[in-house]
Amino acid sequence: MQRRVLLQAAAGAATALWLASRPAAHAADADAGPWSAWTAEALRAHADARVRALAHAILAPNPQNLQPWRVEFADAARILVRCAPDRRLSVSDLPDRQLTVGFGAFVELYVLALQAEGHAVRVEAFPEGEAWPLLDGRPLALLHLSPATPVRDPLLDAVLQRHTNRTPFDRAGTPGPERLRELVAVARRPERVFWNLEPERAARIRDITLRAWDAEMQEFAPTRDEVARYTRIGDAAIAAAPWGPAMPDAVLAKAPGPVSEASLSDPASAVFQANRRNYRAAVESGDAHLWIASAQYDRIGMFDAGRDWVRLHLQATRMGLAMQPHSQALHDFAAILPYVRELHAALGVPEPAHVQMLGRVGVAAQVNPSPREPAQSHLERA
Q: Which keywords does UniProt give here (predicted)?
C-alpha cells in the first residue's frame, strides 16, 4: 500500500547529471579545499575517535552528493544518525529511496571505521520506526558502542580511492566469473547480490537504462531543473557550498558552451547534449553488471542495500575495478514505472522483491572524488 500511494503521488524522478569532464578535475591533496576530506590527514585529524570515524563515513557514496547526514553523540555509547530536512531530492526522489540507500552506505563506513578505533558496534536501524512516506526527524540508525579490541577490515584501506567512475570502461578488462564471485563474497547478504555477464541481458540492461535516462532528463523538465539547481558551477561556488554535483573551473574551461543552471537544464544546449553523449558512452561500455534486490519494498531493504553497495565498491577498488550505479530505471514515479517493470523482468526479480541498486563494474582510468563538507559540519548537539 505504501508503494502504491507513493507511485501515485510522485511527479518526478532523479538521475545523476553526467558532467562531461568531471574525471581528473581536481587532485585530492591537502590543499584542495573542498576535496581535502579525501586525505589521510583528514582521517586522523580529530582527537575524538568518533569524529575520526565520521571522517571516514562522510566519504560514502550518496545521491547527487547531497551529504544529508546529521550525527548526534547522544552519550559516550550511542550515536544517532538522522537526515537533514533540507538535503532531499523533492522532485526526483520523492519517497527518499535513494537517500535511504545512501544512509546505509554511510552507516556501513561508520561501522567499519569505529571498529578500527576499538569499538564493537551494534546497528539498530530505524529505532523509532520506518518513516513513510518520507524521511522525517526520526533517526535512521542508532549505533550502540562498546569497548573492543580494534579490528580493521581490509575494505577500509580502499576508502580514499573509492570513487564513482562515470567514464567509459575498457571492455577488454571486463571481469570474469571468478572475479565477480570474489567481489560479491564481501557482501553482508551475498544471497541478495546478483551479477551478469551474459551479453544479451547486458544489452537489455544498457538499453533500458538509456531509455529511462532520456525519459527522466530529456522529457521531464522538473528533474533536469532539480539537478541543475543543486550543481555547483565553478571553484568559488564549490568552496562556498561543497556539496551537490560539482563543475570546477578546470571542467568549465573544457565545456562545449557556456555553463549555467539554464544551459544544464536545456536539452537543446551544447552542454546538455555533451553530457548526454558522454553518459551514453559510459553506459554502453558496461558488459558486467551487479544488482542488489531486497525481499520487499521497505526502508530496511533500502538501507541494507546501501550497506552492501559500499562494501562491494570498496572491494572492487581493492581489486582494481571501477563501479558506477545505474539508478535511472529504479525510480518511483509514474513515467518511469514501465522501465522499472521492464528492468525487473530483465533481471528476473519478481514481486514482492525489489531491485534497490544496479550498476556496472569494469576497468577504467582512475577518477577524482566529489567535494565534501568537513566531518564536524555534520555533528549536532545532543
A: Signal
Alpha helices in 2-96 (DSSP H): 2-9, 40-43, 49-57
Q: Is 179 exposed, middle or buried (0-12, 13-18, 19+ CB in 10 A)?
A: middle
CA 171 to CA 358: how far, in whole Å?
A: 18
Sign of the CA dihedral with 273 first, then 275, 276, and 277 last? positive
Give residue limits of the domains in the chain.
Answer: 2-373
Statement: residue 131 has pLDDT above 60: yes
DSSP 215: I
Q: Grid coordinates representing 188?
A: 553482508
Whole-structure pTM value: 0.93
- The CA radius of gyration of the chain, in Å to the nearest whole number, is 19
DSSP readout, 248-263?
-HHHHTT-SS---HHH
Rounded to 5°, angle at Cα 251 from 315 and 316:
5
C-alpha cell of residue 231: 550543481
Torsion of CA 229, 360, 367, 34, to 10 degrees: 40
* Spatial contact of 105 and 62, defined as CB atoms under 8 Å apart: yes
Residue 103, CA distances (Å) to 62, 69, 176 in order: 8, 7, 30
Question: Burial of 188 by CB count in 10 Å (0-12 exposed, 13-18 middle, 19+ buried)?
Answer: exposed
- Rounded distance, CA 33 to CA 183, Å? 33
Q: What is the structure's pLDDT at 382?
A: 64
Strands (E), 148-200: 193-196
pLDDT exceeds 90 at position 6: no
Q: Which residues, other chains included, contact 194 with Cβ-Cβ below 8 Å and sequence gap of 6+?
A: 290, 291, 292, 293, 347
Q: Which three cell numbers stand for residue 324?
A: 558506477
- The string of pLDDT tens digits covering residues 154-176 is 999 999 999 999 999 999 999 99
CATH T-level fold of 2-373: NADH Oxidase (3.40.109)
